[in-house]
Amino acid sequence: MACLRLGSKTESFRRDGQSWNCTSGLPSDVTIEIGEMSFHLHKFPLLSRSGLLERRMGESTSSDVPACVLQLSELPGGAKSFELVAKFCYGVKIELSSMNVVCLRCAAEFLEMTEEYGEGNLIAQTEGFLAEVLGNWTDTIRALETCEEVLPFAEDLHIVSRCINSLATTACANSKLFNWPVSGLVETGRAAADAVLWNGICTFTDTKPTTDDWWYEDVSFLAFARFKRFIQAVEAGGMKHENIAGAFVFYAKRYIPQMSRQSSFKNLNSGSMISIPSEADQRALLEDIVESLPNQRGVVHTRFLLRLLHTAIVLQASPSCRENLERRVGVQLEQAAVEDLLVPNMGSSVESLYDTDCFQRILDHFISMDQASAAASPCIVDESQLMQGVNSLAAITMVANLVDAYLADVASDVNLKFLKFQSLAAAIPDYARPVSDGIYRAIDIYLKAHPWLTDLEREQTCRLMNCQKLSLEASTHAAQNERLPLRVIVQVLFFEQLRLRTSISSWFFVSDNLDSSRNPDSALDLSNHNGGRQRGVSHGRGSSLDDVRERVSELEKECDSMRERFQKLLKTKRSWNIFCRRKSHQCNNETSKHSDTKPKPQPQPQPQPPFVTGHRQH
Question: What CATH number should be reported for the domain whose range is 3-133?
Answer without folding.
Answer: 3.30.710.10
